[in-house]
Structures are given as C-alpha cells and as structure tokens.
## 1
Amino acid sequence: MTAGYNEDTRRKELFEKKSARVAASYLRRIKELPDMPKEMEPFLDVLENVHVHFSDVEHETQQKTVGTFCIMVPNELIYAAGGVPVRLCSGSYTAYAVGDETVPRDACPLVKAVMGMGDIRMSKAFENCSLLAVPITCDCKKKIAGMLKRVKPTVMLHVPPMKGTDADMEQYLQELYRLVSVLEKTTGNRVTEQTLAESINQIGYAQYEMSRFLKYRRCDPALLHGTQVMAVMNSYAYMPVWKWAAQMGRLNAEMEKRLSERKFIGRDNQPRILITGSPVTFPNIKVPLLIEEMGGRLVADETCLGERALYDPVTVVDNSFDGMMRALAGRYTRPCDCPVFVDNKQRLYRIRQMIKAHKVDGVVYHVLRGCLVYDYEYKIMEEELGAMDIPVIRVESDYNEEDVEQLRIRIEAFIELIKLKNYAKQKKEGDRHG
Amino acid sequence: MQKPNVKNMHLYVEAKGALTTAEQYLPAFPEIQYFVQCIEKYFEGWDMEGSEPKIFVIGSSLPEEIIHACKKNACWVLGGSSHMASLADYAVPRDTDPVSKSSLGYLLGEDRKVQTRDFIIVPLVSDSSRKVAYILESAGKQVFTVDIPPSKDDGAALEYCRQIYRCIHRLGWITRQAVTEGRLKKAHRDISGAYRQLVYFDMLADEKPGVVSGICRMLIFFSYYCTDSVEEWAKRLSMLNGRIKKEQKGEFMGSKGSILIAGSPVYFPNYKIPFLAQEIGFHIAGCADYTNLKALLKSVPQESESLPFRTLLKARYQADCSPAYPNNDVYVRAVCQLLSRKKVDGVIYHVLKGQIEYDFELNRLEEIFAKCEVPFIRLETDYNPQDIEQLRLRMEAFAEILQQNRHRKERQI
C-alpha cells in the first residue's frame, strides 16, 4: 500500500515538475520577446500561477468554481449564480502524455490533455471545480463529457448543429435554462434578473476593453507581439472578469501612450500573419511563437481562445429575465463561427473581414492532430483565400515539442514566400508609378 | 459482367466480387436467393431518371417507419464501398472515416446523378455527418438534417421527437403524401414484424451454426437496407427461417473458435474482416455493430404496437445503442448481452480509422471482456485492401491464443 502510494506520489511529482518546466519555459520565451508592455505582466503572472505553481484561480472562499469548455457556455450565467468560471481546455504537454493512456490515440490533444489533467490531479483549477459544464460540440468533447461525468458533477449542453432558425435558438435557450437550475443547485444562489444584468454588464465591459485593445493590435507597423496578445487572451480563462477587464484598461492606457509616442515594435515591412484553426491554448503556444521568431508579425487570430471568445457582445433588447436569457442564447450560437456548425460560412466572412481590417499578408491554418472539424473547413478556406490572393499554410501539430524544428522550417519558408511576394508587389507598384 | 442497367460499373464489380466470395459461405437453400438478389439490385443502382424525387438517407439511425409511411422507398446510403470512398477523397480531410467518405462518394459521384429535386436526409450523429451535410448542400443537393440530441433525458427525447416530426412533415411535402398517425403505426407494425423475423433468424443461427454461417447472418441483416418492400422481405425471411428450422444442426465450421465482431459497422461490400475470420477458421457468432444491435434491440413486443407513435419514438431514442452518445450504457449493455447469449471464445473489436467514438468505448468494453474472461483483439483498418495480410497475421495469432485458452480450460476440466 505504502509502496503504491509512494509510486503515485513520485509519478505525480515528476509530472508536476515536467509540466511546470514546459509552462515556465514558454512564459520565459513570451517575456523575452522585446518591448513587452509592463501592464501585460499581471496576465502572465496568472498563467504562471495556474500552470507553473498549479494554484487555483482567484475566487472568494465561499465561491464555487465551474469548469467550462469551448466558447458556448455563457460565463454570464456562472457569474450571475455567484460562481467563477474556469476555462479548462488544456494545452499541457505533460497532461496530454498522461491522457494518451486513457483516451484513444486519434483523439485530439486538447481532449487528451483535459483527461490527463483529471488523471494526475495536479491542477487545482481543475480539481476544485464544483461543476463541469461541457457543451457537446465535437465528437471528442461528446465522449469526454461522458467520461468526466463519472468523476465529477457534469452538465452537458446540447449545442444545436444549425443556427439559422428560431427553433434552433429556442432549443439552446432551453439548455441554458437547464444550466441555470444546475448552477443554482451547485452554488446555492439564485440567478436573478439583477445578478444576470450585472454579469452581462461586467462581461460587456471586458469586451469593450478588448475591442479597444484590438485597435492597438491592428496597428501597422505593429505595436504588440501577437504571441503576447494570445497569452493575454488565454489568461481570461483563469481571471475573474472584473479583474481582467480592469487590467485590460491599464494595458490599453499603456498602449495608447506607446501609440502616441510611436513606439512600434517592428519594421513596417514584416509579413502580417493571421492564425486560425484549432485552439491555441497555453502552454501550447509554439506556433504563434515560431511565427514571430521567424520574422512574421502575428497581427490577428481567429481562434476560440483568442478574439472569437470575446468578440461579439450580448445584445439585450428586452430587459426581462427571459429577454436576457434569449440574448445569451443568441450571442453564444448565432455569431459563433466554430466549425462544429453545419453551415459555417460566417467563418469565411469573418476571416475575410479580419484580413482587410488587420492588413493580413498570409494565413497560418493551425490544425491539431485529430481535430477533424477544422480540417474539414481547410479546403473551403484555401479556395477562398486563393481567390483573394492570400497565401495560406496548413500546419498540423500536436502537444509535444518534437515537431518544432519541422514547423520552424515550414513557417520560415512561408514567411520568406510572403516577403518575396510583397517585394514583387512593391516593385510592380514602384514601376507603375515610374 | 456487363449489365445494361448498372449505373456504376466500378461499384457493381466491387459488390459482385464480394457477393461471389460470400456465396461460398451461404447455405444452398433456394430461399436465400431473394436476399442475394436484393443486395445485387441495390448495387446495380437506382434508375435516376423520371420526375419523381428520390429519397436518400445517410446511415441507419433514422427510424425507417417515417420513410415507409410515405409509401416511398429510400436508398439507405450506408457506406462500405472502397471505390466510393476513393471518389470522395478529394473533398474531405485525410483522417475522415471511410463510412463518411464512402457515403459522400456515393452521393457526389457523377454517375449517380443525384439531382437537385432528390432529397438527402442526414442524421447528425458525428462531426463528419455535419460536415458531409454541408459539402452536399454546397454541391447543390437538397439536404435535410436531423439533429440527434446527445443526452437522452426527457428534454432531449422531446427534442428528438420534434426533429423526427419535422422530417416527417418535410417528407410528406416532398412525396405529396399525408403522413398520418395511422400510416406511421402501420409502418411501425410492418417494420416490427420484419425485426421479429430477424431476431428469430438470429436465434436459429445461434442454434444451428453449422447451417447458418456468420457471413450469411451478416448478409441477411444487410439485405434489410436493400429491399424495396419490407413486407416482402419479412415474408421471405419467415420462409428462410422455416427452412432453417427443419434442417439438422450440421457440422460446426469454426475450428478456431467462435467470435463476436464488435465496434465499427461492417457494411457490405467491405467484408474484409468477416471474410478473413471465416478463412482462418473462426465461426462468426454475431456482429455487434450499431446496425445489427439496433435490429436486435429494436424488436418490440406486439402489445406495444398500440402505443402512439411519438411514445414509441421516444422509447426507441432512449434505448438507442449508437456510440454517438456521451453515456453509452445501452451500447455496452447490448454487447454484454450478446457476449453472454452467444458464449463466444473471443471478440474482434473492429475500428474503422477515424471512427473515434468506437475507440472511446473500448476502454469500458475492455474491462467487461476481462471480467467475462473473453480475449479480444482490436483491429484498426479502413476500406483499402493493402492491410489484409497484416490483419490476417494478427487474426491468426489471435486464433492461436483462443486455441491455447481452450486447451487450458479443457485441461482444467
């Protein structure tokens, strides 16, 4: 018995050390990118607390934490019930290696990491969750919902695969009402009209600050490193919204100052890259880092842990409780361009819009091995971007560091290609103007 | 081989080849010919000319009653053809499962000429089904999706019924038929009758493994989705059952032991695994894939036929054994039930590349197999013939294990 206990403890310690080392090394690399805004540090500290020191997320003692997955779970409802949401989509390489033993080989790494996190029990953010809210989005999430239910109280949310009709939204509304009753039971607090309105406003404020922040991200030449921006966006998963929004406000003030002083971080001829596809979850931030290390400028992301999560605000037109619930059901399905929906032309429009707004030169299409839904949309995306004369590269990756050098070569070649293309374009324009 | 009415010669040749191989494992009863002809006719293809819209259904999760109640025949697109899978290779990602690829190839193939007026029903059970629906829609086909809620609770059952009734209304509109409760219940009676015959056939096959081989059993199950008339099919199966009942037990052919094939669906003509198992000397005591389990579980007692169709629908949804649900207790229970009933020596767990749901279920099943002391082997494959020799080697090794187990048990006795 003691031998078994010791073996388990030793194993856990080993995993903790390894996991902390990887997270710390990525944090260091993010911090080492030149000219990091000072106000960005608190966001990185949160990532350090959760991923290096394995601390729980910040919450009051009596508050319950609710683990969420994907972006279809309205955090507004959790805050309104007096809980604190924690986004549990994991990017841990160590947890992924552990999860590999419990889920099939071809499952996506994110899901493996989630299951691994449950197995090694090293993350307090995961362990202390009183409830898990799992939207049934893709096949892997569906299956882990069943597995997680055996170890923790879990509520599954059926996300309608179509979002065009009122009936689809009505169905999701019923799911949200069900979620409210489960949350009330878990936290012991009632979700009232007032608490719901307050939480919608709180998240609305965070979205407002984020939209201001995106303005600085769009700057040409760049004011910020995209990788650092993605780390900031990742920290939203582990911070109370009011705190995140307040810190974001301070960061925006610093960015405003930098803009007025024209303190740009790069040259204006660096290829401007957009990353889209499977989620980029800390510490698996290797692709954004590689893009920037190879001379690209990551100016936009269309991922669910990035801009997509906070882009669209909740539009309340009827202030009654049901009106707000309807606004939430609408917000979390209709503008969502996650590829789990049958018809996802919206994602094409959104990317087109982003390419224009962020002056994007090339797109990196990130596919996590086993993430089939994103892979399905690559073909359409490739055709669309081809028609726009925007180069695109499909980068398939996993949660380990073995493919880094291979990725580096491909990304470097892609960036060189864009540079040549831009050079040829400039030359042509120069010739035309004599 | 040249048949004037064949719509896709490659598909027909593939199916005919498999059918010829299968025929050596079929009993020489004249009653069996009807089922072989049904399958052959299915692979000859439909006459796509004419003004009537055709109905295509992807997979087997849609209740057949709703098609039957429209007095129409539907083409059940189950996948299974490697040729059709290769046709869709360009349109889907590399890791897509062969069943989805094959279904898509079947509906997108130039020779099939599915027209804009034709109606394709896609039950949304997986990531691939959602994306296949979109690809078909983008190709200008008329697609109707049926959302299958994952949680099976009462709210989900209501939503499921709503989805099915939506489909019924649309079908009624397309076929210009009023789909009444009476028609639905009549369809339910017919289909339940057919399933009862199928269950009886399965029982007879268990009793007389020397007469009915595993391949024969699987072909009869598959032919259900190829028939034009369920009533006729049930009548013919009843005749076949009568014939089997009269037969002597015969010599048991499974010298290497009796096995159950579980996991991903084994759709004709992709009978790679059953053919190999039979060649090696296994007796296939049953196939616990979704389509077969559904048939075995769906058989309802005659008394329930008087219930409203909605109630039947709800009950069936909650007892559905597809692995496309997060909590798959029904599937696991169904496999256990077959394990104890069929007294098999081993299980071949068949996983088609990309069908991740089946792989997820394996962990739970593994514990059950271990508890029942039934050895199992996981075989991952797709529709390509390249891995046959590798599979053969693994299955032969598995046969050795089963034989050693048997000897050990005999020595203990």
Note: The two ends of chain A are 84 Å apart (CA to CA).
## 2
Amino acid sequence: MARVEPAFKLKTANLSVFVLHINTTDMAQLKQELDERYRKTQGFFSNSPVVLDLSAIATCEATPDFSDLLSFMLDHGMRASGVIGGSDKQRSAAARSGLGLFTDPAFRSTVKPAPLPIASNENPAQESEPRKEGHSKSAAEKPVADKKIVADKKEEETQSGNSHFPGQSTGPAQPVFEPGSVSSTSMLIDKPVRTGQRIYAKGASLVVLAAVNAGSELIADGDIHIYAPLRGRAIAGANGNEKARIFTSLLEAELISIAGCFKVFENGIPENLRGKPVQAFLDGPNLVIRPLQD
Amino acid sequence: MAKVIVVTSGKGGVGKTTTSASFSSGLALRGNRTVVIDFDVGLRNLDLIMGCERRVVYDIINVINNEISLKQALIKDKNCDNLYILPASQTRDKDALSLDGVERILNELKETFDFIVCDSPAGIESGAFTAMYFADEALIVTNPEVSSVRDSDRILGILAAKSKRAVDGLDPVKEHLLITRYDPKRVEAGEMLSLTDIQEILRIPLIGVIPESESVLQASNAGTPAIHLEKSNVAEAYRDVVGRFMGEENLPIRFTTVEKKSFLQRLLGGR
C-alpha cells in the first residue's frame, strides 16, 4: 500500500526580501520621504513582503507607530511582515502590530548604534535599499537612455553646451552616493575597443590601454581612464555618480558623459584640447573638459 | 595541420573575392594544396572571377544537405594544379548555410588540403558570420576610405568576440590587414586615407597593399585571378602578400609611393 503524503512539510528556505532600513523615529518625515520616492513607481513592490530593520533606531527611546506605518506602506504596495533589530520595547510593539520577529539577524550580526540625530538626518530615511533599486534601474534604463540622447540632443544642445540625459535628472529619484563608493574595483581592457562594441564596468571604474575607436561605447559607474586615443563614446558615473571623471591621453571622442550630463563635439574638438591629454569632470551642472597639463 | 583563412571586410565591393581568388591561387602556385570556398550564397561571384562558372554543377548547399559527396562539388582550377573551388549556390539564401554543415565540410577538407580559404560575403549577417566562425586566420580587406575602415573595425570586433576560437577560449584568430585599391597619388592629394591613418585606427599587422589598377577589372571580366597577370603591380603585390603569409619577413611593402614615370614611359604612355 502506498504511503500517504503528509498534509504539510516544514522546511527552511533562504528567500531574498526587501529590507527597509529605518533611520529615523520621525514618522512624518519617513512617510513623506517614502511617498516622494515611491509614489511614482506604484507597481514596483506589488505586495512584496518587506522587513523593517530597526538597528539604526535601537537606542532611541521613541517607538514608531507600527500599525499606522504598516497601513501607509501597504498603500505603496509594501507588505511589512517583520522586524530585525531594534530595542526590546520597539520589538514588542512591532509584535503587537502583527509583525514577525527575526530573532537572529544573520546578515546583521552586530546592532549598529543610532549614529544620527533624529531631526537633522540628511540621508533619505531608507538608505541602502533605494540605492539598490537605483542601481538596477539605471542599468536597465541604459539602452533607453542612449536612444534618448539622440532624440533629445539637438533640442538641449541649443540651450547650452551641456545637457542632461532625460530620466537621469536630479531630483528625489537620484540615488545618493557616498564618495568612493564605486571606485573600489576597476575593469581593465587591453585590446582595442572596436566599433559596435560596448563595454560596461558595472559598479567599477574602467581602465583602457588600447584605442577606443569611433562607434564604440565605454560605460562605467565609476571613472574612465583611457591611455590611448578616445574616438568613441565614454559615459562615466553611469548610475549617477557626479564625482566620476574621464581621463584620456587623446580626445577625439564622439560623446562624453558624466552622471547623465553629456557633451558632443559637432564642430570638432576645441583648439585648446586638440591632441592633448585631457580630463573631464562635473563642476556643478557643467561638464568641464581641461587639458591635464597647461 | 590545415589552416582555415577567412577573407572578410564588412563592407562590400572592397575586393574580397578578387583577393580570395588571387590569394588562393598564390598559395597553390607555391605548391600548397588549397581550396577556396565561396560563402556568398545567393550572390555567387567567385566562380566568375576564377573563370569556372560554366563548370559549376553542384554547390556547397548540396554538400551541406548531403545530396552529393564533397568531391563531386569541388571544381579543379584551370590555372593551378593544387587549387580547387567549392562554389556557392546561386538559387538559395544564406540561411541554408548551417554551422554544423560547414564544420563538417571544413573537417573533411582539412584531411586533404593545406589551406582552406573562405570568401566571405559582405555584411555582418549570418553568411559573413558562418564564413568567419571557424577561421584560424583572417585577411581583413580594407579600402583607404573611412566607411571601409569603420566596417573593418566592426568585423575585427566580431572576430575577437564571436569566432569559434574566441568562444572556445583558444588563441585568438590571427588578423592580417590587407589594403586594396590603394592609390598613392590620391593619398598624396589628401583624397584617400594613408597607410598610417588606417593602421592607426585598426592596429593590426599589415600583410600587404594592393595598388588601384584598371587591370583588376579586366582580369575579373576575363575570369583570370589578378595574380596571373603579366607585368602587373597588382599581381606582384598579391605575390608579396602570399610570400609574407608564408613567413617571408623581409619583403618590403611596395607600390605605396607615387612613381615618377621616366621620359620613355611617358612617351610610350604605358601603365
């Protein structure tokens, strides 16, 4: 006689979930920033479970009003389902509001003390997670942004020499960057980059030792260094890092761009830059290109 | 070990087929058992340049479809004993060229021949891709003009990324730059890119420069590969190319400067 399958099985599973890091106990501020950030992307969460990380506010006396926060999050498609970290008081309040307790925060073994005063918190309330989303979003948008360059180039060029990629403009959607956050790794290319080739150094700087030919494209989230002629396109700080720079030993580029701000050379390379090693960087909203030695 | 050499360019009309015909003839003239394959299915030309169009009965697609044996499709060249031609089909399209079928043919040819020259169609679509996929070495045919150089650059990128050698992680395809239709007079006048301009962009070793010449057209129409022409710059330049390919390193690059005609030559008006 065949064995009857039991009605259930209990297993453990490693699932990836969103973790919302709460950096403030000021619920009004948190809700306002959450709303600004996710109002426009309604479908993004689509009822995904979200875990609240309270580590940063563990030493705060105040306890968030979880039931209010839960319903607010649900309005934005986030289904809060548990908490990590936090003080005992905060955790029991969370449990009363129906949130699960992650007792052993395996990926956060030490509870960070709250580093920030409640009122003057300069970072958005949630820190690492929107950045994650900013990464994937900018990567996914890249081809689209490229197409948009062509479409919008003419119109914006007439306004000034510098322009912004549409969709990468400054605003609440812009991810926040800590200096040096993307330059820890680099990608090295030692063969000529041919027309039609596209090289993307994701989350890294790009170093190229051979010629970058016309019709090719270099993209890096960090800096781009080219120790050879640059004749194609170079797009640094592709995920919005405004500190990124481009260096080349000979500028003959079709286009250079930093953090969405780009320049084309319709009338050729300016006299003072021609045939010289140059660097390009952002000075406020302006894309500046200077010879490396005067 | 037999070598597979692809003659390719990206751009059309730069002299791939002319080069395939002369290069394979040159290899055969040196005693190498050589076969030249036309990959331009649907627009076959190689048989015309080789002067064997009336002897084409079967073609590469028949072999791929196992309708005939490879031997039946090979046509012996009329000028060289060691040279065979595998013609393309004129009535099919390039999708009929399957990678598996081509690999089978190449492996069979490798048993008999020293060199297998693949005449690629223009473009970067399936026909050109199939022609280059199995290559050990590549002749990149480039004219001294920007669009041709740009397309050659693209082909080099594809060779480095998508050829079988690249996919399997073997030594990369050995690339040779062959500049054709080079007119020193127009280069001097600034109307054409110079040798150094082209090399500066493509950055691969130069295997030869074929001068622009009216005799190429006449040879093509007559069905004789240009390398067989008597007293021709083009024939000598192609022979140099074959020599360099076979490892003769001390052959200087010729026909790249404007030659002053002697008084007698001018008087006789010879070319």
Note: Residues 3-269 of chain B form a domain with the Rossmann fold fold (CATH 3.40.50.300).
